[in-house]
Every structure is written in structure tokens, then in C-alpha cells.
Amino acid sequence: AIRARVTTVNFAQLAQQNSGDPGSAAQGGLLGAFPRGAMVPQFEQALLQLQPGQISGLVETPFGFHVIYR
Predict the structure, then answer these.
(1) Which residues pair with 59 in a beta bridge?
(2) Which residues, 6 or more positions from 9, have their beta carbon under 8 angstroms from its beta carbon?
(3) Is the alpha carbon torsion for 57, 61, 39, 30 positive or negative?
(4) Residue 27 φ then ψ, to 5°
(5) pLDDT tens, the chain, 70 aa long
(6) What secondary structure does DSSP assign to 27-56, as a single string?
(7) What angle do CA 56, 57, 62 make, to 5 degrees?
(8) Structure pTM?
(9) FRET pair for 31, CA 20 to 30 Å: which of 4, 14, 19, 53?
(10) Which residues pair with 69 in a beta bridge?
(11) In which element (H, E) is residue 60 found?
């Protein structure tokens, strides 16, 4: 349901309100720069399919479900 509401304008607000990751939630979902291989393969593969400014569909990893805004 959250993915259907996410836009580039409200991504940070929805991440703050809904993320289960306290570190990134406090930063509006921002993870910062990280090297290849730092994230689990499912997350990294989904991220690399996005162009800057795009938002992913729902991505499942061993850590849960994610919506990625690149």
C-alpha cells in the first residue's frame, strides 16, 4: 500500500514514517554512498536497474521489503 503512494516528492516523509530501519528512517530513507557488494544481492540488483530519479517496485531481501529511490 505504501509503494502505491510513494513519489519523488514524498519519499523522505514516507520513509521517516514507515521504515523499520531506525538509521535510514531518521534520514528520510537516505543510505548515503556505498560501494558495490556492500548490500545484499537483491537490493543491489534492484538499485542498479534504476536510473537516477526513479523509484523501484517492491524489493524483497532477507531484511524485509524495500522501496528504493535512486
Answers:
(1) 66
(2) none
(3) positive
(4) -100, 20
(5) 899 999 999 999 999 999 999 889 999 999 999 999 999 999 999 999 999 999 999 999 999 999 999 9
(6) TTT------TTSS-HHHHHHHHTPPTT-B-
(7) 95
(8) 0.91
(9) 4
(10) 55
(11) strand 59-61
